[in-house]
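Readers of this paper often ask what the protein records in our data store actually look like. This encoding replaces a full spatial description with a residue-level series of whole-number codes. For reference, a complete record is included directly beneath this paragraph.
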Amino acid sequence: MAIKQFRLPDVGEGLTEAEILGWSVAVGDVVKVNQVLVEIETAKAAVELPSPFAGKVSALLVEAGQTVDVGVPIIEIEVAGAEPEPRSAASASSTGAAVKAAAPKREPVLVGYGVSESATTRRARKNAASPVRTEITASVAAPPARPVAPPPAAAPVPTRAASTASAAPSVAPTHVLAKPLVRKLAKDLGVDLRTIVPAREDGVITREEVERAASSPEVAVETGSVRAPAVAAAFTALAEDRRVPIKGVRKATAAAMVASAFTAPHVTEFLTLDVTRTMKLVTRLREQPDFRDVKVSPLLITAKALISAVGKFPEINTSWDEAAQEIVLRGSVNLGIAAATPRGLVVPNIKAAERLTLRQLAEALARLTATARDGKTALADLTGGTITITNVGVFGVDTGTPILNPGEAAILAFGAIKQKPWVHKGKIKPRWVTTLALSFDHRLVDGELGSKFLRELGRGLEDPAAALL
């Protein structure tokens, strides 16, 4: 038997570090090749890392919540028949302390992962000397060399079988089964996973169960050393300051928005229009057999109208290359859809959206929304966008002045659709009305082009049948 170390791989886009969101295994577990070990979060997205080895987990070298550099060992697995490899300084240090790895030894390459050939010893981060304060999730058992304070005597740790054997255990279990994203959601909502009795046969707690627990006034959360109802805890928290580290998607989004706001000269124009025909078309499409199994929404029609308008005004689908001092005319419409997720704002995009039929576009929007909500957006879907829609109307907002996605010339804010009195055929009638806001880079798009594009897009929503034809 030999101990093999799995180092944090470079998952693409030149990323140099990632946060450990949560472990899917514990010390003592037997794992197979390509079994998911851990979920990490980069500045782009959340990624599940599979195991390159088959064997028994002997140590978790990094705790959930800690950020580590690419190439740093994160887990040790006892592998049968393998030659032992030298233990790095990282494995001997205590969890949460500074991790200083020697030049990483190459590991078996996983599909889509692996440390690059040019990987060298990385300089320790400035804050590496101080311990990282983390909250250890209930499913991660700390290695013997790094003991964690035991749970209170009133709540002994049961075995994995005991945690799911009874539908109503007399003692709240401390070892619970839940995916890393569900654990993070529970933490954000202040829900103690040990208070939830899972409905699934395998004992895994679901996102829906956490959300139901958060909405229940009886759910208990930890407030210091005192357990109190969640509702009371929410009000108590208002009296205290709370600091949240800026990292992951939030950090990347903030940097991108600041760079965009102070690099591209933004101009925003507004257009309020009657979209009653669009609403009628949405209703008709939902009744069509070809669209019954996909989501048809006003956003779908807006996306199609925007793509059509880009076809008539391709200069809106450009980017500014500062280094080369060139304007790049984009060959395809890679349509970005701004999505609010538990981690923050992400803008995945649909590649070559102009080539898709209306149904194909609906399917692409559904896939994009689902993966973004689950935090599983592929890195490739987060790069290469050319123009973006942000649907602020879903929050009941009339419109806004959106900031450009970096590298793009325009972004459309799609506001709430409401019934309002409107002059229609010489008479005031209740009509479905919305307001569009188009922000554009004035280096690339002058006022005339921006106005014509927005007006053409508006026509596509006022008379969508004509626009789709």
The CA atoms of residues 23 and 65 lie 10 Å apart. DSSP finds eleven helices and 23 strands in the chain. The radius of gyration is 26 Å. The first helix runs from residue 89 to 92.
